[in-house]
Amino acid sequence: MSFPRRVEAVVFDMDGLLLDTEIVYRAAMIEAGATFGITFTGEIYAAMVGKTNPQSALLLRDLYGVDFPVQAYFERVWADVEDLLEAETKLKAGVVEILDYLDDIGLPRAIATSNGIASVEKYLGRFDLLGRFNAVVAHADVTRHKPHPDPYLEAARRIGIAPLGCLALEDSHPGVRAAHAAGMMTVMVPDILDPNEEMHDKCIHIADSLHVVLDLLKASA
After folding, report:
1. Coil, helix or strand at residue 91
2. Which of 95, 160, 183, 220 is 20 to 30 A from residue 106's alpha carbon, by CA?
3. Is 13 a catalytic residue?
């Protein structure tokens, strides 16, 4: 398989794509649910993957009532997440290898994430990866978030490459929708969410891992 156009840059999502964090977030939300007297399941978490906190808050109030204390719930979740991430955060397989290859061939790369810049700096900094990206677009850098294309369009603008020349790598459905809407060649590397028919339609490839993406890049060089 080859890409439909020459890849001039790569734009990465972060959670679930570069960092193996989604399982940590899910565990913390399930545990906090018990404290708040609700049954929070993996299926509910899957519906929240790729969404911003305000979007997730709406989902929680739809499920548990308009009076559900979303802010207190999130505060408990993030307190637990901080401890878990400190102990358990790992890079996804293939991250270092694909960045090494992009260095070798001189392709720029960026991050487009719904996470805050403080989290990006903290967790990518732990693995000494921040300096390996030409730009980072985080939550506060755009007013419209995934599934809107704005994070990916801003990432392309910052690295000076037209969206059509960018390869976007995503693990979530909202992220795929955002990258596709931006006009980027989109590859989904599934994590928590399995690809559905829409994902197959919007992606040029569904890859089992970043190692597969690396093979695709090498084959298209």
Report:
1. strand
2. 183
3. yes
